[in-house]
Amino acid sequence: MNILLFEEHEVSAEGILTVCGDRARHMIDVQRMEVGQRVRIGALGGKQGSGRIAALSPDRVEIRIEALDAEVPAATTDLIVALPRPQILKKILSMAAALGVRRIMLVRSARVIKSYFDSPALAPDKINQQLMLGLEQAIATHLPEVTIHERFRPFIEDALPGIAKETDVSLLAHPAATCDICELGLVERLGARSTVALAIGPEGGWEQHEVEAFERVGFMACSSGRHVLRVDTAVGVLLGQVEMLRRLPSASE
Amino acid sequence: MNILLFEEHEVSAEGILTVCGDRARHMIDVQRMEVGQRVRIGALGGKQGSGRIAALSPDRVEIRIEALDAEVPAATTDLIVALPRPQILKKILSMAAALGVRRIMLVRSARVIKSYFDSPALAPDKINQQLMLGLEQAIATHLPEVTIHERFRPFIEDALPGIAKETDVSLLAHPAATCDICELGLVERLGARSTVALAIGPEGGWEQHEVEAFERVGFMACSSGRHVLRVDTAVGVLLGQVEMLRRLPSASE
Question: Do the first three CATH levels of B4-70 and B77-247 match, i.e. the same topology?
Answer without folding.
Answer: no
